[in-house]
């Protein structure tokens, strides 16, 4: 999964998940629990998030939604935290417990208790799209030194849910008929053709009254975050809607292999003044293929680097042309 610039990514996700239809799609598909049936999604309401103190600043990308829950119509709250980083935060349970505690203080101040004078339930949900698997403990007790003799009864109890987008099982992702599934599929996709297939699916989804706004925000997210991460350094035109994003991608699918070739030859000409033009061109092409492989798949193995070092010009050319559609270095080298 290609990493995007964090502030833009977080802002893009905040726009996407500021739509009630996206929250309903998220919970129905990715939190498959019996209690979901007790939620009244027609009552979804985006809440203010200024309740976090200056000392414990909440991030601008985090969202809080509320909706009615259960037979008595009490409120249920969803705390949605967007986590976009390559270094996992091991103590995420502590951070979230702090947020939820501050939120509950605000609930008390605003007199938003349940009819039985209790605090409303909150689901802390982390959306994580880093490359590495999420391994931070989900339960705060896993972070506390084990004790016995009755002291364990006084330890805090808190647990959160994380959706590790890059490693969600296919059966949970389900068919491509859900806008959140579509967003996650884009995050998991490396080649432009796969993203175009997702765009085609989104255009066919019945998204209700919010459909046009959701499609526009997905198009904006693709243009500002996703495509720049996959085509670094490319000048991209302004687009208006998914159809224009698709046209932009279709054009780049055709031209980018040629662009990589041209950049490789340019690097080669520069080196050729010192080392001989033919060798310089070959080395330049080899370097641009290496850079694009690492941009897309991460650091190469020693064996992959060895294959690159011994490749002839025609092999490098084929590999450059197959990069956009390949899902792994192995696919590139087998082309």
Summarize the structure in short:
With 335 residues, the protein is α/β, with parallel strands linked by helices.
Number of strands: 5
Low-confidence stretches: 1-5
What is the residue-averaged pLDDT?
A: 84
Cα(first) to Cα(last) distance is: 21 Å
Q: Helical amount among residues, as a percent range?
A: 40-55%
Q: Which structural class is indicated by helix and strand composition?
A: alpha/beta
* Total count of helical runs of at least 4 residues: 12
Q: Give Rg in angstroms.
A: 24 Å
What is the molecular shape? globular
Tally of discrete structural domains:
2
Structure, described:
By secondary structure, the chain is of the alpha/beta class. The chain folds into two domains: 6-230, no CATH class; 256-334, no CATH class. It has helices at residues 6-16, 20-30, 92-109, 170-173, 179-188, 192-204, 211-230, 242-275, 277-297, 302-309, 313-322, 329-334, and strands at residues 39-46, 63-69, 74-83, 122-128, 161-164. A five-stranded mixed β-sheet has the order 1-2-3-4-5. Strand 2 (63-69) and strand 3 form a beta hairpin. The relative contact order is 0.10. Residues 1-5 have low confidence and may be disordered.
């Amino acid at each position: 999964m290609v990493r995007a610039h964090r502030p833009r990514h977080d802002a893009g996700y905040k726009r996407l998940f500021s739509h009630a239809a996206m929250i309903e799609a998220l919970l129905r598909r990715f939190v498959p629990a019996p209690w979901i049936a007790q939620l009244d999604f027609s009552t979804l309401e985006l809440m203010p998030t200024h309740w976090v103190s200056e000392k414990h600043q909440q991030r601008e990308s985090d969202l809080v939604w509320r909706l009615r829950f259960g037979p008595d119509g009490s409120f249920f709250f969803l705390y949605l935290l967007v986590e976009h980083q390559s270094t996992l935060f091991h103590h995420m349970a502590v951070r979230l417990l702090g947020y939820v505690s501050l939120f509950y203080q605000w609930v008390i101040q605003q007199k938003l208790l349940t009819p039985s004078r209790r605090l409303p339930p909150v689901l802390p949900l982390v959306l994580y799209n880093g490359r590495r698997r999420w391994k931070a403990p989900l339960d705060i007790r896993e972070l506390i030194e084990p004790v016995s003799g009755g002291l364990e009864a006084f330890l805090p109890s808190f647990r959160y849910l994380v959706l590790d987008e890059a490693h969600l099982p296919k059966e949970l992702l389900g068919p491509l008929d859900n806008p959140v599934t579509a967003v996650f599929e884009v995050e998991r996709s490396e080649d432009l053709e796969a993203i175009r297939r997702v765009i085609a699916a989104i255009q066919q989804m019945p998204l209700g009254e919010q459909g046009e706004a959701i499609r526009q925000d997905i198009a904006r997210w693709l243009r500002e975050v996703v495509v720049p991460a996959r085509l670094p350094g490319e000048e991209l035109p302004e687009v208006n809607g998914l159809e224009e994003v698709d046209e932009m991608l279709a054009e780049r699918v055709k031209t980018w292999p040629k662009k990589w070739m041209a950049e490789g030859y340019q690097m080669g000409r520069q080196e050729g003044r010192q080392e001989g033009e033919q060798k310089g061109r070959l080395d330049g092409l080899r370097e641009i293929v290496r850079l694009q492989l690492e941009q897309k798949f991460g650091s190469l193995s020693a064996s992959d680097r060895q294959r690159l070092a011994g490749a002839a010009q025609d092999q490098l050319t084929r590999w450059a042309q197959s990069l956009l559609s390949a899902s792994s270095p192995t696919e590139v080298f087998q082309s």
